[in-house]
User: What shape does this take?
Amino acid sequence: DAGITQSPRYKITETGRQVTLMCHQTWSHSYMFWYRQDLGHGLRLIYYSAAADITDKGEVPDGYVVSRSKTENFPLTLESATRSQTSVYFCASSVRGNTEAFFGQGTRLTVV
Amino acid sequence: AQSVSQHNHHVILSEAASLELGCNYSYGGTVNLFWYVQYPGQHLQLLLKYFSGDPLVKGIKGFEAEFIKSKFSFNLRKPSVQWSDTAEYFCAVNANNAGNMLTFGGGTRLMVKP
Assistant: This one.
């Protein structure tokens, strides 16, 4: 019962570097999501995907890139990391977009 | 755009006290409603959900929530909290015309004193 796994769990990177956060799910859920969690803002949607090769912007997509070549993987790339992207990132998946979402353990990213 | 408000940012209770956390949303059409819990250092887990039917829904660990359409609210309740309920609680809404996005409230941090 692997479910949904994120890697790495913790990452420290420097400003300007490219960083990729990985997300893998074993349920074959159609939908996958990336959220960032910041104090005072709750969870904000960065990008989501309805199926392989279909992605859409969420509330805060600037500075991020996603891809979904396979149903089970949904990597999130910060093309040029900035300090404002220091956050905890959660990946989630669901059968349909409006049903229960299952969350990964999160990746704590610090940009210095 | 849909929005979700959780007015209580921090709540401190003693064990056995009753809990009610407020959640209000902005959309007037058909909605799916959720409460998630995040225990310290862990990921979000679903507490309960409402899609249709009985507006009083029961979830895990003794939690329940009531959907009041006229008030655009979906408040979370528990009659008697335990120390182990210390966590952050998030309300989330999916509105039918908002595509396939869940919108989360800002969260409420609950601390239960033993």
About this structure: The first strand of chain A starts at residue 4 and ends at 7.
